[in-house]
Amino acid sequence: MNKRELVDAVAEKTGLSKSEAEKAVDAVVGAVSSALQSGDKVAVPGFGTFDVRERSARTGRNPQTGETMEIAASRSAGFKPATALKNALNG
Signal peptide span per the entry (predicted)? Predict the structure, then answer.
């Protein structure tokens, strides 16, 4: 499902116009993004938890040349699904 399909689904389920549904989707994505940027965790009961995961610096290997290289530390977004979502997918 892409963003357009998500907006259409939100509009259909809520009775909002497509432009209102797009604003709602953008607001949710923006709120989650800004919370993660500030290091906060975002928990949505029944769906899951978004959090920031820290990756430490490490030594890697270039697969083409075989030479070693340093990979810088980084942060990335992580998602852990809630038990209810896991059960819905598997049951």
Answer: none
